Amino acid sequence: MKVVRIIARLNIGGPAYHVWTLSEGLREHGFETVLVAGQCGPGEKSFDGENALRPRNFRLISLGRMGRVVRLWGDLLSFWEIFRILRAERPEVVHTHTAKAGVLGRMAARLVGVPVVVHTFHGHVFDGYFPAWLTALILGVERLLAKMSTVIVTLSPALKRQLAQVYRVAPEERIRIIPLGTSIRRFLDTPRRAGALRRELGLAPDVFLVGSIGRLVPIKNFSLLLRALEALPRTIPWHLALAGEGECGPELERLAGDLGIREKVSFLGWRTDTERLLSDMDLFAISSLNEGTPLAIIEAFAAGCPVVATEVGGVADLFQPGERAVPGFRLMREGALVGTGDAGSLTRAIQFFAGDEEILRAAGSAARASSLDFSEEKLKERVAALYRELGCRA
Fold first, then answer.
1. Could you report the per-residue pLDDT of 161-171, keeping only the tens digit for each?
2. How far apart are CA 158 and CA 204, in angstroms?
3. Which CATH number fits domain 2-181+375-389: 3.20.20.300, 3.40.50.620, 3.30.499.10, 3.40.50.2000?
């Protein structure tokens, strides 16, 4: 059976990894895949280009006009291209990912008469992204598109609750949860605290190494992490390793200087050796204003690195509750959850782990155990099972 998978662009990040993994891996479950993808925007790195990937077990069709930014004429032409592709391919399933692809792909699929139409929400843009009037318009469009969808897929229970109860995009019975999956073996196999990153940065063994990996963009709110670290007691020697690129890079460097911590922050740029970085970090931190299900948390878990994160989107669903209460933040088995935008809470959580090696080690062990439920093998099995349930017998 044939699946046409559509995504707006293959930029560095979880959604691109997700669709590439499914496109490559579903052949072993009896599904032929055609991946339709738009173009990355200025300053964005492509997932396949940066990782030197070539399509394996699937065909890749690139659309030159489709991307993240709304462009009326370009989007109309992209819609026509998608319509022609679907009419030629005649797939049993169209599965769209990300907002732009969800709009164009689902409408084209229904016009062509594709039997099964699935859309995955990797997160949402209904809070904190756009003015109120535009958010209301986007919600209206998503509700209409949900009626065109056989099912909606989310990556976490929290995101399902938001879509069904808060934003009323679709009723709960039309929304399925399929957790994110990734290739975790290289993280599991990398020795913990091998010392490569510490040697690269010239850090002493007693320095508490906090790390984060992600796009340096406003929604990631890395300025909160800098402020939280600056507020740590002077008795704690710490260093931040921040891997990633983006528009906020120069601004974050200036802020680190203004806070008087520039020498304690290393901006590593874009890196592909994430297992090497994570294996050396004492603590992984996420300070985002919004998230779907961050792939970086799963990778940190697999590397045995405890995680402190803001409680947004589907983040909390990756953690298991801790065994005791701690004032100022939620202690979890794999790390801690803190309030969105709460620098004080983030400071307290980091200080808590910096001060107790035994707790840090226990959280790392729990994190590694939790990562096993997010393997790419389980992701492929769950998606294939969904297609079969919907009537696409492979």
1. 999 999 999 99
2. 40
3. 3.40.50.2000
